[in-house]
Amino acid sequence: MTERMQNAADAGPGPHYLALRDHLAGEIAQGALAVGARLPSERQLQLGSGAARGTVREALFQLEAEGLIYRRDRSGWYVSPPPVVYDPTRWAGFMAYVAEQGRVPTTETLGKQSVAASAADAAVFGCAIGTPLFALDRRRAIDGRPVLVERILVDPVIAPDLLDEGLDGSLTAVLTGRYGVRVVRNHVEMRPCALIKDVARALGVASGTPGLLVVRRSFDAGDRIIEYDHEYWRHDAIRVLVEVRTRD
Amino acid sequence: MTERMQNAADAGPGPHYLALRDHLAGEIAQGALAVGARLPSERQLQLGSGAARGTVREALFQLEAEGLIYRRDRSGWYVSPPPVVYDPTRWAGFMAYVAEQGRVPTTETLGKQSVAASAADAAVFGCAIGTPLFALDRRRAIDGRPVLVERILVDPVIAPDLLDEGLDGSLTAVLTGRYGVRVVRNHVEMRPCALIKDVARALGVASGTPGLLVVRRSFDAGDRIIEYDHEYWRHDAIRVLVEVRTRD
């Protein structure tokens, strides 16, 4: 670890791939390679740098691991947009905190249906296994680029006509405005994970790409669960930020 | 997404790999496959389930993505220990919060040296590029299994003899006890990432495995930076938990 981290930080001497990584990272930082720009092809990078094919790929994988570049289908490598900052201690939904950061949030409903509570769901909702729950599947994008897919479960008792509502905005706003529900507590759990199968496909990333699973449970003043949400984020789209001070 | 998530949750009908996934997840949940136990070989799973080789592998990759099992070198698949819970809003270091959860934390110093501040370091420390900083590289384990590697940077002005100290415990305790430094604010940033190269090697995982990068900056009452820490966690070892209530 020592050598890698030091060399990457210092742009000093070190393995050849780090020199190329530092060169490309520098171009990105200075804007010579702008957000959304396509990188030169691997072949062009090979010719330009005099590096071997394996070295070029190592540099690209390093930049991908850091979230600076990403692959799009098979058309090549692109400069990643900056990640959005998510502060779980703040009281703002996706549509609000993304817009606050000067970005454009959009939400697309992929499906809405009634499902039977699994054992795990039943434990969270305090209901019997098999009890009907509303499931809402959505994909959310920032500046047109899909960044997360989510499934939200809601107890039909709380919002009987929920599936007839427009759900492409803030679900919390619908629950508050239409059903008078008020969330007063959020329990947020975050786990790094691999994005695979249908989730990877919905986000347009290769299966196995790193991601972040954010599981949010929202409760009202009576400690009744209102929303149970699983969000799968692509790894380069989110940065979680928490600031904390001693209380004494 | 809809189908996958639904089927995985319900153990209902669905792709064959999900049935095997649910079966193995059930064995793990019930303790028939205990923490640390080696799973049957892929060949044995094939014979036992009647599933095709590709189906068996899909089920194993699914369980790996969820953090329930992991690969050890080339010796097979093992049941993951439960992740440790990290609450960035709490004021406890690794040695403290891991022990509180009934687990055994250990710290191993991999290297300590003086390095020259990079442009990024200089911006954080408010010093000139090239200024000497102390760098401490450590690997930390829970119950003997390495879970993170980290590099901590400290300004030598704050702790001139730091590199001569024993640093296999809490660095904060050394800075407080020996140098009278008091941290009053932490700025914590978390980014999902891929673990590659030296970091992956130090943690004994395959290059490209998902991980979590935790970047922590600690400040004293005068807003002077005390510790600048980069922690790379293996994805199945950590769960970040934040609980928040409305303030009104």
TrEMBL record, chains A, B:
It comes from the Bacteria. Pfam families: GntR, UTRA. Gene3D superfamilies: Chorismate lyase-like, Winged helix-like DNA-binding domain superfamily/Winged helix DNA-binding domain. InterPro entries: Bact_HTH_transcr_reg, Chorismate_lyase_/UTRA_dom_sf, Tscrpt_reg_HTH_GntR, UTRA, WH-like_DNA-bd_sf, WH_DNA-bd_sf. Residues 14-82 form the HTH gntR-type domain. Keywords: DNA-binding, Transcription, Transcription regulation. The keyword Transferase does not apply. PANTHER family: MANNOSYL-D-GLYCERATE TRANSPORT/METABOLISM SYSTEM REPRESSOR MNGR-RELATED, TRANSCRIPTIONAL REGULATOR-RELATED. This is UTRA domain-containing protein. It comes from Sphingomonas echinoides.
